[in-house]
Amino acid sequence: MHSKILAVSSSTDVSSRTTGWQPDHLLDNYQLLTFDLGPDPDGEDPITATLVRRSERVEKPVGAVLYVHGFTDYFFQEPLAEFFAARGYEFYAVDLRKCGRSLGEGHTPHFTTNLKFYDVELTLSLDKILTDVGADADVLIAGHSTGGIITPLWLDRLRTSDPARHSRITGLLLNSPWFDLQGSPVLRSPITTAVIKAVAKLRPKLVMPQELSAAYGESLHESAHGEWAYDLVRKPLGGFPVTAGWLNAVRDGHAALHRGLDVGVPSLVLRSDKSHFIGGYDPKADAADIVLDVEQIARWSGCLGNRVSAVPVADARHDVFLSVPRVRERAYHEVDAWLTTLPGAGSSAS
Q1: CATH number assigned to the domain with residue range 14-339, chosen from the 4 options 3.40.640.10, 3.40.50.1820, 3.30.450.30, 3.40.20.10
Q2: CB distance 65 to 40 below 8 Å
């Protein structure tokens, strides 16, 4: 398995690696562009990533947001984008390689053997945002679930490897970040970790035996018990298969977090106040995190470094911004309060 990571140098011309902005084929009033990521270290060429933005631009922006989705996920959370736009932030979201809009023929959905590989599209996205909004723009990074472990690892590396780029980032917003492997302690034991690593080396695309429950998807999607409309090809109710190589990459990321990171900026960590693990949908799924263990999120949030605000949101779903209306309004209130504490915070609209 290749370990080389395609570098993005400080002199990279972003325009040479992208298409121009085009209408988004999934969301009205949004645009997308595609990054050519070059050879795939995991051997599934060609690979691209997709940056999405609102078509309507913010007048005199106070900054920008780059949002990173989770596993079995892609960007469709328009109210989140509108929330930030109303407060003067240009909103961008990236669909990572083999995810969402970037999932192509011959790709194993969401497959990677190293979370560091995502540094390429994250850095290209940051550069494009700075080109769009201004080289001195303040940029907030937002990550959900798996995106919530990918982004702090990237920032920790960027802080030391590229201080100039890192200096444009002023905050990190994490929405139910995946900070540890949920379930029985046996799954987190050194023996199990070693077995996962060995299998990942020999058969990285081996599908792990445990199937994901469809309960979370059913709690969200309008075709079942939810209110949200999204593409079930890109975000199936029962989730994509979990591969050994991908799981090992995530566990390596968890281990790095547990040793301690320094993301270099203030962080806000939002999560539900409780977890509720179920095999099939029941109404409790609408008022709890049924994907991750919120106690693990609480335990490991302090390992981000810098100043961390960890806030439980009562009755929130796994994606707190997809909770029922009264709950997500509380989550947005917490973000509003946090924004005022950031260095150089601009005035916000109500």
Answers
A1: 3.40.50.1820
A2: no
